[in-house]
Amino acid sequence: MNRLSFLDDTAPSAARRLLGCYIKRHVDGQTITARIVETEAYDATDAASHSFKGETKRTKVMFGPAGYLYVYFTYGMHYCCNIVVGSEGYGAAVLIRAVEPVEGKDYMEKRRGKSGVQATNGPAKVCQAMNIDIADNGTDLINGAVQLVEQPEVEESKITTTSRIGISAAKQTPWRFYITDNPYVSRK
DNA sequence: AGCGGGATTTTCT
DNA sequence: GAAAATCCCGCTT
């Protein structure tokens, strides 16, 4: 087992557990670190998930083992990144919807052309800020240019659970999680 | 503060 | 050919 064994869990459990963890990005000769503050869970039983209708070329990474990065392109101009969770062969992942800059805040604000919470309070904003695109799809989160660093679990009492944003199917499923009162959360 | 539309292209039917 | 796990800007209250 590796240090990311906590990802081998159901998508909603892993999504809760990922709150507070760090994403480290190695790019342009520097290290960028961000704390995950908002997530959404998707799995194969879920009509809103890319994996719902089975594996395709696009969702191949989702069906692989946990601990890899799943990046997809959408709306003709945006990338969103997910952390693959659960068993190999089962399509599940957790969307990173918002992060709080820990290291390299200037780099992120410069790439975004925005400052403060506007730099990283949305899934496509996170990717733009951290310079993540389709070339990073399938990255190993232990050894790759994008890494996941486990942090102490966020207390259940500090986590808010809601329905997900921006989907048309399974709108009621309460699989969105965020750190209550964190200013970088995309929306209440 | 809230609503509505436009941008822009990959992916799957 | 339509939809898309979004963002930004402008217009109206």
What does this structure look like?
This protein has 188 residues and is of the alpha+beta class. 13% of the residues lie in helices and 30% in strands. The chain contains three helices and eight strands, in the order H-E-E-E-E-E-H-H-E-E-E. Strands 1, 2, 3, 4, 5, 6, 7 and 8 form an eight-stranded antiparallel β-sheet that branches. A hairpin with a 2-residue loop joins strand 1 and strand 2. Helix 2 crosses helix 3. The protein is globular and about 40 Å long. The N and C termini lie far apart (37 Å). The mean pLDDT is 97. The chain binds a DNA duplex (13 and 13 nucleotides) through strand 3, strand 4 and helix 3.
What is shown here, in short?
The chain is α+β, with helices and mostly antiparallel strands.
List the helices and strands and how they pair.
Blueprint: H1 11-18, E1 22-27, E2 30-43, E3 69-74, E4 78-84, E5 92-103, H2 105-112, H3 123-130, E6 146-149, E7 159-162, E8 176-179
Helix pairs in contact: 2-3
The protein binds a DNA duplex (13 and 13 nucleotides) through strand 3, strand 4 and helix 3.
Radius of gyration: 15 Å
- Indicate the mean pLDDT: 97
Helix share of residues? Answer: 10-25%
What's the overall geometry?
globular
- How many strands, which pairing sense, and closed or not: the largest β-sheet? 8 strands, antiparallel
**Beginning-to-end CA distance, first to last residue:** 37 Å
| SSE order | HEEEEEHHEEE
Q: Which band does the percent of strand residues land in? A: 25-35%
Oligomer class: single chain
Question: What is the structural class?
Answer: alpha+beta
The beta-strand count equals: 8
Low-confidence stretches: none
The number of helices is: 3
